[in-house]
Amino acid sequence: MRTLKTMMMALTLAAAPAAALAQNATAPAASAAPAATAAAGDSADAAAKPVFQHAAPEAEIGQPIPGGWKIQPQVTELGEDGQWLHDAILVPIIVAISVFVLGLMLWAMFRYRAAANPVPSKTTHNTFIEVIWTLVPVLILLVIAVPSIRLLAAQYNQPKADVTIKVIGNQWYWTYQYPDNGDFEIVSNMLKEKDEVKEGERFRTDADGPRLLAVDERIVVPVGAVVKLIVTSNDVIHSFAVPAFWAKMDAVPGRLNETWFKADRVGVYFGQCSELCGARHAYMPIAVEVVEPARYAEWVKLKGGTMPGEKAAEEAAASAAAEPAATAAAAPAEEPAAAPVANANAAAAAPTN
């Protein structure tokens, strides 16, 4: 009986390594199957991914208005504050001063004309008038200073950025880099008219924007996000300006200037280089498209970029998926090594007939 038990133990010991080898051999195949499935799924997704469809600009929004004389409609909080300062404070004060001075001049010309004053007055000082014309300008400046200083402070007190874009001026085009989204880069040139390009080349259409303002590559940003602009230049001084955002910053070679905006409305907004930068200064337009966050993520992926945290999440998921497979592959290799020792000790201790 004991001999039979010993033979069965020996057969078990002989079969254990083979089983362990078979289990280890099939584990990578099992773990490779999901990877192959995922790769096939990614390929199918890439093939089915649509081309990003840019929005068409709206009339009288984000662009000059034909025959217009007012400030463009503002789509940022800073722009609304600036427009209020202009419309509610500066314009009324300017109109009041202009009307007052004009009336004073007309009254002085009529009241103190030579026909009405054959003997000229020799009055040289009037204390009351001198106090008035000193205090009134001071009060006017105070009325202007309080909201304007508050606006300037808001412009230079940048909140935490959601998106950072490096804006680089060149003669005569713009380059934009997205360091928060994989550091990809786009180059933006003005679109020419149909009769200015060769057959087969892209030309401007109304869906791209107005003449001299449409570009082949727009800046795309998410709506409601704080966009930080780091502005510089590769050659001469340029100036990045988008009137609807109340944003304007000089691009100076060798310097990094900063500004920001937060667009609260989806749409397409145009600007231009606002610094005389050379012969083609008038052909450096700027186009910014504000989209929903989901469309922004779609555009970033189509440009070869990544969303913040996306790469780290992918690496963490891949690491988490690989850990169970590695554990499963390592565990069977350790058990057979311990089993023969225990079985051999048991066999040695068993008495034989």
From TrEMBL:
Gene3D superfamilies: 1.10.287.90, Cupredoxins - blue copper proteins (2.60.40.420). It comes from Edaphosphingomonas laterariae. It catalyses: 4 Fe(II)-[cytochrome c] + O2 + 8 H(+)(in) = 4 Fe(III)-[cytochrome c] + 2 H2O + 4 H(+)(out). Its EC number is 7.1.1.9. Residues 1-22 form the signal peptide. Belongs to the cytochrome c oxidase subunit 2 family. SUPFAM superfamilies: Cupredoxins, Cytochrome c oxidase subunit II-like, transmembrane region. This is Cytochrome c oxidase subunit 2. One of its GO terms (biological process) is ATP synthesis coupled electron transport. The chain crosses the membrane at residues 89-110, 131-153. It comes from the Bacteria.
